[in-house]
Write a structure and sequence with these properties.
single chain, 218 residues, alpha/beta, Rossmann fold, seven-stranded mixed sheet, 8 helices, 41% helix, 20% strand, globular, binds S-adenosylmethionine
């Protein structure tokens, strides 16, 4: 019988010390985010970086869409895992963080592989759909209230067998704490149930970082 493991800070450090290594620029983004204070929690965790790297390599993804760039850690991670002729499109509405991310992409020599689209993500997704874009993998990590909209829109931008990865689905563990009935926690719970019941995909929640759901389009 399997047992449930509680991931302490020590275990997390052990995992990071016995897994893939980040590049200098990925570490620089993390240091920069640390300097921002509480907002650094926006970035994905180191083990999530490695998970994205491996899933991109293993699935031979060449065209990736990200919803939620922030200062660029996940975008750069995914771009570095792509082949030289791969492409990553990343969406965010924040001009300032987009500029920071663009500087990191340039520093890491990934500028030519990454296209940043500034604006509300639902509008950008609609434009990508109108133009007939398709992606091999879509990573959703923006405003939680719109997760269901992003997921539904993403399905139109994927072929069969392609993947959607969604961050924060365990919401610091609060999804199982029924005393928590605030809007964000409730919307994550509703989203998780919606995805799990959706016959268009099969899904698995993976307990790394704040929780990743991986969906395969059927
Ligand atoms: C959690 S952060 C993304 C973190 C990033 N994936 C990383 O690992 O560094 C969420 C981002 O979504 C963006 N965002 C929030 N609502 C948005 C919207 N409606 N349209 C586009 N971007 C949005 C925010 O500006 C923020 O940069």
């Amino acid at each position: 019988m399997g047992s449930n493991l509680v991931i302490t800070k020590e275990i997390e450090n052990y995992i990071n010390n016995h897994s893939l290594k980040l590049t200098a620029i990925q570490n620089e983004i993390i240091s920069y985010n640390n300097s921002l204070g509480d907002i650094k929690r926006m970035q994905i965790s180191i083990s999530q970086c490695h998970f994205l790297h491996l899933i991109i390599k293993a699935s031979n993804a060449k065209k990736i869409l990200e919803i939620g760039t922030f200062t660029g850690l996940s975008a750069l991670t995914m771009s570095l895992a792509l082949p030289n002729d791969g492409k990553l499109v990343t969406l965010d509405k924040n001009k300032e963080t987009n500029k920071t991310a663009a500087n990191f992409f340039e520093k890491a020599n990934q500028k030519d592989k990454i296209e940043s689209i500034l604006g509300p993500a639902l509008e950008s997704l609609n434009n990508l759909k109108i133009k007939g874009n398709k992606f091999d993998l879509i990573f959703i990590d923006a405003d939680k209230e719109n997760y269901k909209n992003y997921y539904v829109q993403s399905l139109d931008l994927l072929e069969k067998n392609n993947l959607i990865v969604i961050d924060n689905v365990l919401w610091h563990g609060e999804v199982t704490d029924h005393k928590k009935q605030d809007k964000l926690t409730t919307s994550i719970r509703d989203f998780n149930s919606y995805v799990n019941e959706d016959k268009r995909t099969e899904n698995l929640i993976i307990p790394i970082g704040d929780g990743f759901t991986v969906c395969r389009k059927l």
